[in-house]
Write a structure and sequence with these properties.
The protein is α+β, with helices and mostly antiparallel strands. It is built from eight helices and seven strands; from the N terminus they run H-H-H-E-H-E-E-H-E-E-H-H-H-E-E. The structure holds adenosine-5'-diphosphate. Adenosine-5'-diphosphate (ADP) binds next to helix 5 and helix 8.
């Protein structure tokens, strides 16, 4: 975000601009500062306190409610790109967790599924409550992830296939944050190929 913000300002200062141009640039700078704020807040939570401190503040949450809110927010974002965001099932599931972090996990995975999908495809969101764990899945029909890239996509700032990604916004931080959040909640994440196209992200968190 900082590169985008300083780049935008640099271009703006090069010569006189119309009011409209100033306004468009300011909107884009504002959006990037919001993104930056979100990233900094989550990174601060994940790095400034130790795991024990964060876990001490875990509260019993209906994570189905948290997921439904994220789903509603992203339904229209997907629709704008002609992507159907569907629910397979959302079981009532309670977990001792940090609400903001769990929301960020749902948001990152659904946001990625939309970003890396093409028009006229479908994304399925699924939350199942089992005896000992909750299982959350996001299934997309998008561009998929090559086997050799799977081991790196949780690394900070890693973006598979930069050339492809130039057109798709992002900083390569989302999945490293997701992985941190899952570790904090005694969970695991697996990625499978969806057939014929796309990826399946599966998260299991022990109750
Ligand atoms: P960002 O989305 O900002 O690039 P992430 O850390 O969330 O960063 O993801 C890292 C990389 O993993 C992405 O750049 C993309 O190459 C790949 N990726 C993540 N989710 C998906 C997905 N659902 N389908 C295809 N590729 C994905």
């Amino acid at each position: 975000p900082l590169t985008i913000i300083s780049g935008e300002i640099e271009v703006l200062l090069k010569k006189e601009r119309t009011n409209e141009e100033y306004k468009t640039s300011l909107v884009s700078i504002f959006e990037e500062t919001q993104n930056l704020k979100d990233i900094v807040n989550i990174l601060l939570t994940l790095t400034s306190t130790n795991d024990k401190q964060i876990k001490k503040d875990f509260k019993k949450q209906d994570i189905n409610d948290i997921l439904l809110k994220v789903y509603e927010e992203y339904f229209f974002i997907a629709q704008k790109r002609n992507i159907v965001l569907d629910i397979e099932s959302i079981h009532i599931s309670t977990l001792y967790c940090d609400e903001i972090l769990i929301r960020s996990m749902f948001t990152n995975l659904i946001d990625n599924a939309i970003k890396f999908s093409k028009e006229n495809t479908r994304i399925i969101v699924d939350l199942k409550d089992k005896q000992k764990e909750v299982i959350f899945k996001v299934i997309d029909e998008g561009i998929g992830i090559q086997d050799k890239q799977k081991e790196f996509i949780f690394d900070r700032f890693y973006r598979a296939d930069e050339s492809h990604n130039k057109k798709i916004k992002g900083y390569g931080l989302g999945l490293s944050i997701v992985k941190n959040i899952i570790n904090l909640h005694n969970g695991e994440i697996n990625i499978y190929d969806n057939k014929p196209n796309g990826s399946i992200f599966e998260i299991k968190i022990r109750k």
